[in-house]
Amino acid sequence: MNQNQPQLPKGICVLETQVAGHLFTNNTAALGMLKDETIGCVLKPFGKPECGARELSFYESLQNTNDPQLKKLQNFIPKFYKKIRLEVNGKDHTFFQLEDLTHGMQQPCIMDIKVGKRTWDPLASPHKCKVEEEKYARCKQVLGICLPGFQVYTENGYKKFDRDYGKKLDAEGLGEALRLFLNAQEMLCEALIEELLRQLYDIRAWFREQKHFHFYASSLLIAYDYVALQKRLQNEKCTACQKSKQQQQHYIPNGNGLHICEVVDNLDDVDSCYPTSPTHKAIPSFENESLNTCRCLERYVKVKMIDFAHVFPSANNSLDMNYLFGLESLIAILEAMLK
């Protein structure tokens, strides 16, 4: 038996698709993510008592809310089922039982993107603030996002990249990492990019209105099924991919012998009072245009907000500009791929 494998209850296993956060190691005190194979959900360790209590309070507040804006937020996060106790390595531990966002995916490509220039919460000590500020500084301070880890399947096999890879990235390198993750280094699958943008636009629209919370050290989890996506595009012609007469179209190969429709429109820059990345200003936004998104891809592509141990009530009833800055940067990078 692998010495890194913990002693777990029957039906519970290590979540092999975990790409960021604490992992199981030889140090049995370290807890990683688990998976309940019997019901298809993931189990996230409670963590430090104050952090776990804060995250539990966040989930429960959404379950019990009648606020329409908070109800909308439920669409952007994994389903929370309950808090459970499990015996791991002979000791009782508390876990969050959550929706498995990759359930049913044959070859899940998964990326964890931490959002925000500032990743320390209002209760952090000066030392913690300094440590967090120095992490991933080369891209985080420029783009407001950083890359703790990802895994990707390609026609050449499977690759996994951890935090050490992410810490070496500058702003340009993060863009290249996204292209690698999206199998877009040589050719581009536009339908995939457009579906990601559609979901990110929905999240951004919520953040442009909500003044309930500020999210620190929270991430966006992006997942898509490489096998299912390619089969869907290759074998079925979806009417949602058809063009209107007003749109000029041509076709580009996506690197796997397939052809995806590309819409070419004259788009004007969208003025905004919201924070933007340095590269965002010259890039037109597709949000108010008709994205040529085949909605049949939705089941194979997921963008969800995760990690809520450092969510705090909004200060002075204000927008979360820290999160919005990073979100705008990510959207700008993806929009640039469509140009």
From TrEMBL:
InterPro entries: IPK, IPK_sf. Keywords: ATP-binding, Kinase, Nucleotide-binding, Transferase. Coiled coil: none annotated. One of its GO terms (molecular function) is inositol-1,4,5-trisphosphate 3-kinase activity. It comes from the Eukaryota. Its EC number is 2.7.-.-. One of its GO terms (biological process) is inositol phosphate biosynthetic process. GO terms for cellular component: cytoplasm; nucleus. SUPFAM superfamilies: SAICAR synthase-like (SSF56104). It catalyses: 1D-myo-inositol 1,4,5-trisphosphate + 2 ATP = 1D-myo-inositol 1,3,4,5,6-pentakisphosphate + 2 ADP + 2 H(+); 1D-myo-inositol 1,3,4,6-tetrakisphosphate + ATP = 1D-myo-inositol 1,3,4,5,6-pentakisphosphate + ADP + H(+). PANTHER family: INOSITOL POLYPHOSPHATE KINASE, INOSITOL POLYPHOSPHATE MULTIKINASE. Belongs to the inositol phosphokinase (IPK) family. This is Kinase. The gene is LOC131803843.
